TrEMBL record:
<feature type="binding site">
    <location>
        <position position="155"/>
    </location>
    <ligand>
        <name>3'-phosphoadenylyl sulfate</name>
    </ligand>
</feature>
<feature type="binding site">
    <location>
        <begin position="73"/>
        <end position="77"/>
    </location>
    <ligand>
        <name>3'-phosphoadenylyl sulfate</name>
    </ligand>
</feature>
<dbReference type="Pfam" id="PF00685">
    <property type="entry name" value="Sulfotransfer_1"/>
</dbReference>
<dbReference type="InterPro" id="IPR000863">
    <property type="entry name" value="Sulfotransferase_dom"/>
</dbReference>
<keyword id="KW-0325">Glycoprotein</keyword>
<dbReference type="InterPro" id="IPR027417">
    <property type="entry name" value="P-loop_NTPase"/>
</dbReference>
<dbReference type="GO" id="GO:0008467">
    <property type="term" value="F:[heparan sulfate]-glucosamine 3-sulfotransferase activity"/>
</dbReference>
<dbReference type="InterPro" id="IPR037359">
    <property type="entry name" value="NST/OST"/>
</dbReference>
<keyword id="KW-0808">Transferase</keyword>
<keyword id="KW-0472">Membrane</keyword>
<protein>
    <recommendedName>
        <fullName>Sulfotransferase domain-containing protein</fullName>
    </recommendedName>
</protein>
<feature type="disulfide bond">
    <location>
        <begin position="269"/>
        <end position="278"/>
    </location>
</feature>
<feature type="domain" description="Sulfotransferase">
    <location>
        <begin position="66"/>
        <end position="288"/>
    </location>
</feature>
<keyword id="KW-1015">Disulfide bond</keyword>
<feature type="binding site">
    <location>
        <position position="163"/>
    </location>
    <ligand>
        <name>3'-phosphoadenylyl sulfate</name>
    </ligand>
</feature>
<feature type="active site" description="For sulfotransferase activity">
    <location>
        <position position="73"/>
    </location>
</feature>
<keyword id="KW-0812">Transmembrane</keyword>
Length: 320
């Protein structure tokens, strides 16, 4: 009887001993992992929780702190590509259309569209030219970030209209739709029998900068905006890029040799590393021909809007 009791006790104490050994081993392994993490991996526990852990300063996504809001055909793509030459700037390459068409997809969706950043001091910029003319956008942007930096690149409104019209024309051509004629689309006759601009035709209304900026200024101050001269930018990008760097609070980093003039295209292209990037064929293509009479009429009809715009932004452009 006592022999059997002895055996049971020996078995029990061996089991206890083994359990303690296992616990001791596990604790030792855990301590080793902690030490390793602490000293070599900056305490990130990356292999334990992997994706769930937010690792500061490493491939994190953050919302843009600046938006190029427009204007359509003003030079928004070239401006975005050019500012991306700056070492502290990360850009969203495609137009997200978050604040106009994709708002219902939510902020997580928007955040996922952002590029990965590697350092906290990098800034993210997005461009969607449709933002400038969409009435819902200013309030939505303000609600997300009342300090958002807003960049508006404008261009001579008549040439912008012709450029916009040219794009609409070629889009319709591709879709085998009936083709518009600017002299017909652009004008209407009012009740008093006077000829006016057609306030329902987008290539026209997109050029009425005063109307759109007023909607933005219901939420933002003019100090939130940088107005870039698209005509100057096209001919001498560095001049306007220096203003953009300053506005974004960045050190001057873009150098003249990153801006390479392409004599065939008639435009500047951009060199980030060794590769030179020019804009696609839809930029800088030949405009649809428009008669001098239409150009003159448009110039006259835009005149009051231009003056109003200059007064609002406290800046003047030579758009004669
Ligand atoms: N460096 C460079 N390369 C190519 N194009 C340049 C450049 N700088 C300014 N531009 C002018 O940009 C105009 C197109 O404007 P956007 O990019 O805003 O167009 S869009 O609204 O995104 O479709 C485009 O207008 P169009 O010439 O009427 O096509 C260009 O004049």
């Amino acid at each position: 009887m006592s022999g059997r009791n002895n055996n049971e006790e020996v078995t029990k104490s061996m089991a206890k001993f083994s359990t303690r050994c296992v616990i001791a081993c596990l604790l030792t392994i855990a301590m080793c992992l902690l030490q390793y993490d602490l000293f070599f991996r900056n305490f990130k526990f990356k292999w334990w929780f992997d994706k769930d852990v937010i690792v500061p300063n490493q491939f994190e996504k953050k919302f843009p702190s600046a938006l190029i809001v427009g204007v359509r055909k003003g030079g928004t793509r070239a401006l975005l590509d050019a500012i991306a030459l700056h070492s502290k700037v990360k850009i969203v390459r495609r137009e997200t259309h978050f604040f106009d068409s994709n708002y219902s997809l939510g902020f997580d969706w928007y955040r996922n569209q952002m590029p990965d950043i590697e350092n906290e001091d990098e800034i993210v910029i997005e461009k969607t030219p449709a933002y400038f003319t969409n009435e819902n956008v200013p309030k939505r942007v303000y609600e997300m970030n009342p300090n958002m930096k807003l960049i508006l690149i404008v261009r001579h409104p008549v040439y912008r209209t012709v450029s916009d019209f040219t794009q609409v024309y070629y889009n319709k051509l591709e879709q085998n739709k009936s083709l518009p004629v600017l002299s017909i689309e652009a004008f209407r006759t009012n009740e008093a029998g006077q000829e006016t601009i057609n306030m329902e035709y987008k290539p026209i209304t997109n050029s009425l900068y005063d109307i759109h900026i007023s909607k933005w200024l219901q939420y933002f101050k003019t100090e939130n905006f940088l107005f870039v001269n698209g005509d100057v930018f096209r001919a001498n990008p560095l001049h306007e890029l220096r203003r953009v760097e300053e506005f974004l609070g960045l050190e001057r980093s873009i150098t003249p040799n990153q801006l390479v003039f392409d004599y065939n295209k008639g435009f500047f292209c951009f060199r980030k590393t060794t590769k030179i990037r020019c804009l696609g064929q839809s930029k800088g293509r030949k405009h649809r021909s428009v008669s001098d009479d239409v150009v003159l009429k448009l110039s006259k009809m835009f005149e009051d809007h231009n003056q109003n715009f200059f007064r609002i932004i406290n800046r003047t452009y030579s758009w004669d």
